[in-house]
C-alpha cells in the first residue's frame, strides 16, 4: 500500500509520487469511485512534453468521459500499458497498479499541489 501522506494531490483528483526527477501520476480513489467502472484510458505518448494544467489524456467510464490533466511540466517517460490493456486496474488499485504515467520533471513541482489533509478537506 502506498503511503498516501507522502503523495501530493491536485484539485483535479490526481496524485503525484516523486522519486528523484520522476513523478508517477494516477487518479485518486475518490476520482475512481466517482467515475464508476473505468472502461477506457487514453494516455499521452512516451517522450511527449506535457504542461501543467493542459489536457494530456482521457478516461472513460460507464458513467462519463473525463479529461486527464498534466499535474506538472515535463516529459512523459513511461505510460502504464497494463492500464491501457485493463482499465479496471484504475478502480481496483488507483494508488498502485492503476498508476497512469511517469513524467520526468521539467522544473519545480507546482506550488498549488495539496498534501493529503488538504485533499481530504477538498473532497469532504
- Stated plainly, the CATH topology is called OB fold (Dihydrolipoamide Acetyltransferase, E2P)
| Molecular shape | globular
Q: Counting H and I runs of at least 4 residues, what is the number of helices?
A: 4
Provide the CATH top-level class: Mainly Beta
For the residues shown, what is the average pLDDT? 94
Largest sheet, order of strands side by side? 1-2-3-9-8-5
Portion in strands:
35-45%
What structural class do helix, strand and pairing data support? alpha+beta
The separation of the N and C termini measures 22 Å
Task: Sketch the major β-sheet.
Answer: 6 strands, antiparallel
Helix content: 10-25%
Q: Going by CATH, what is the homologous superfamily?
A: RNA polymerase II/Efflux pump adaptor protein, barrel-sandwich hybrid domain
Poorly predicted regions are none
- Number of separate domains: 1
Second CATH tier, the architecture: Beta Barrel
Radius of gyration: 13 Å
Which sequence of SSEs, written as H and E, runs from N to C?
EEEHEEEEEHHEH
Q: How many extended strands?
A: 9
Question: Features of this protein?
Answer:
124 residues, alpha+beta, OB fold (Dihydrolipoamide Acetyltransferase, E2P), six-stranded antiparallel β-sheet, 9 strands, globular
Q: Can you give a write-up of this model?
A:
- This protein has 124 residues and is an alpha+beta fold.
- It has a single domain, classed as RNA polymerase II/Efflux pump adaptor protein, barrel-sandwich hybrid domain (OB fold (Dihydrolipoamide Acetyltransferase, E2P)).
- It is 19% helix and 35% strand.
- The protein has 4 helices and 9 strands.
- The strands form 2 sheets. The chain has a 6-stranded antiparallel β-sheet.
